[in-house]
Design a protein that fits this description.
Blueprint (H helix, E strand, L loop, with lengths): L10 H5 L4 H7 L7 E10 L2 E6 L2 E6 L14 E5 L5 E5 L5 E5 L7 E6 L3 E7 L6 H14 L2 E7 L7 H11 L4 E4 L8 H7 L3 E5 L6 H9 L24 E4 L5 E4 L12 H7 L1 H7 L16 H7 L5 H50 L1
Helix pairs in contact: 3-7, 7-8
Amino acid sequence: MSSSPKEIPLAHLIKHGWGDRVAHAFAPFAGPSTVPGRVVCVYRGQCDVATPTGTIRADTRPLTGADPVCTGDWVAIEGASSPRVVAVLPRSSALVRSAADRTSRHQVLAANIDTVVIAVSAAMPVRSARIERLLAVAWDSGATPVVAVTKADLSDDPAAFAAAVCAVAPGVEVVVTSATTTAGLDSLRAALNGTAVVIGPSGAGKSTLANALLGVDAIATGAVRAADGKGRHTTVHRELHSLPGGGVLIDTPGLRALGIADVGAALESVFSDIDELARRCGFRNCTHRTEPGCAVGEAVDAGQLAADRLQRYRTLQRESDWEASRSSVRKATERKNRDKSISRDQRAMYRFRNRQR
């Protein structure tokens, strides 16, 4: 007679986002020696996990794959004296970027997120292309993006800066904040939902903003270089923290380079203004270049759409299409190698049988 799963104390897990969806996903793994947990921080071969009884260090080596577990994952853990992660529960969402090594593999930055906070420093000029790239990754994750304009106290005209950001982020809430004066922090807290992750380049004030939202200096911060305004990687791990008012927050290292994966559908959200114009084009497959009756081209000619925004749209679209083709090639190669492996094993089995006769 098998023993029934033990009752799990939920208070600590609820602080880290436990809910009905996660409970249902964990049910097949429930047992006397298995407990659920949420990954707080990942190291090589190990991770910190929030469990029903507190945060523990667990071994991740039983898992396979190049990127088997990431911050925000819900997992099943076995072993009291030597805990180990034995399964990663299905993700409801994932923040993904293209790998920096020019392969077709992707890196998962955070899992099971509801809000992506894009930190944009008002102390630096607006970099439209960077914001649009971050928005593409955010929309593609399945979460809701929010732009947090940071360091508003260092800007001569924060309202004008925010207006410039809104122009490249249609339909996205833009909140002007200052960790120094606390301006805008309540509005930003109200915009967060469930699990939020903060992303942006080094020097954007992500960790300072995260500390302000947490109400404690839980994350190391550093000054930016005066020469170019670039920051140093004071945050070296993606780490999950419980917010005092409920929900959780994941702080991430600065993204010096951000390759996008296949985000074709997300581009419709990033460039919703272009997508709306495209629906009025004379041809369904209009490339918005030389076709007659192109509503996008007409908007550019009339000054209603900036030509450089259209060019940035084309750039991201080309990169997304290229990533999609690379992913297809990788999947085809993996399938081919798997078929070869099966055939090789079958031939070995037949040779073994023949030797036994």
